[in-house]
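Quick illustration, no need to memorize.
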Amino acid sequence: MPTNNHHTLRKILSLSAYLLVAVAVAYLLIDRHPIVLAPKSLAPVDTTYYRLSGGTSTIRRMLDKPLVVNFFATWCPPCQKELPALSKVYRQYAGKIGFLGLAVSSNVPDIINLKRKFLIDYELGTIVDDALEIWQARAMPTTYILDKNGRILWAHAGLVTEEQLSQAISEAIR
């Protein structure tokens, strides 16, 4: 019996060591690579995106009022889950704030299908994957709210709820 106890103890210690290393690595990665750009910093608004209607534009061109910028992917379940909330909030605040959805690693027909499926009325486009690094949008989806000058008012990595976005927009348009 002492051999089984010794074997079990070794397994537990080994598993604990692996867990400790994983936590340390995760801490170092998160500490060195912020999940999103910091609020109050200037966003890289000269980033070019490709419009679904054709041609290119920059995020700066949409900054005539505060702007929600949502990075998503058509193949991302959390992204698809939040699209109805984004669409609803857009309609609620239409005219007071702009919305821009930028798809990554997604093809245009799939984006158009999502646009129809979720009744998305705001501007959608595609963006090169390298732009995600510039925007520090490492999680899908990632959402920012910018002021008219391109300063980040709010940032959120991961699925955003209708309530979270509405509250952030209310504060942004004050």
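The mean pLDDT is 88.
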